[in-house]
Design a protein that fits this description.
Nucleoside Triphosphate Pyrophosphohydrolase; 3-stranded antiparallel β-sheet; manganese
Length: about 210
């Protein structure tokens, strides 16, 4: 019998280390909105993609952990004004996707690495904007302070893990992008709208850890 509450950081860590759905290196086609757009994603997979990493920061908060999100500034060249996880391109000096994700979290929101415990990876997310994204699942210890970089991040906020892992909050929608019909997830949370790449990663997290 499991000793940890379902949505605690401890249980998140345990599930992250024992994911369902096959090896992360091979499972990207089988999850999230990749599964909703098999033909489009196959085309993206054939492109020359730049490697990137994002941190999925799950904050210890008793029985109901919280997940940190950012609101990107409206002046950024890509994904401006969207809700995102801290992250960005993997630089040559980054020894691993984990290092890149932790570095980016420090640069974007001032989250110090002493509070971050990288735990596991999710399958890649292939973005039509030209990136192969590795989501890094991490537990964040309480006591941290955020210092937002105003050139990249307009705001940062937390959403309960229990809300995100409730499939009734995962709405599927459709839009035409560059002349192609795309299906995607969106997750309304109060006045916020989590959608696109970020919602696809959240959906993959749900499918890998909580189904």
């Amino acid at each position: 019998m499991n000793e940890f509450p379902l949505y605690s950081a401890d249980e998140f860590r345990r599930r992250a280390l024992h994911q369902s759905g096959g090896p992360v290196e091979l499972a990207w086609r089988d999850h999230g909105d990749h599964r909703l757009n098999p033909e489009t994603i196959s085309q993206v997979a054939d492109l020359k993609l730049k490697d990137a990493a994002v941190l999925v920061p799950v904050v210890e908060n008793g029985d109901d952990a919280k997940v940190i999100f950012t609101l990107r500034t409206s002046t950024l060249r890509k994904h401006s004004g969207q809700i995102a996880f801290p992250g960005g391109a993997i630089d040559p000096e980054d020894a691993s996707p984990e290092m890149a994700a932790v570095r980016e979290a420090g640069e974007e929101i001032g989250l110090a690495d002493i509070f971050i415990e990288p735990v596991a990876r999710l399958p890649h997310y292939l973005a039509a904007t030209g990136f192969r994204i590795t989501p890094i699942l991490a537990v964040v210890k309480p006591g941290f302070r955020l210092d937002l970089n105003p050139t990249e991040v307009e705001d940062a906020f937390e959403v309960p893990l229990s809300f995100l892992m409730n499939p009734s909050h995962h709405v599927t929608d459709t839009m035409v992008w560059q002349g192609i019909e795309r299906h995607f997830y969106r997750m309304p949370y109060g006045q916020r709208m989590i959608w696109g790449i970020t919602a696809g990663i959240v959906r993959t997290l749900y499918e890998r850890l909580y189904t």
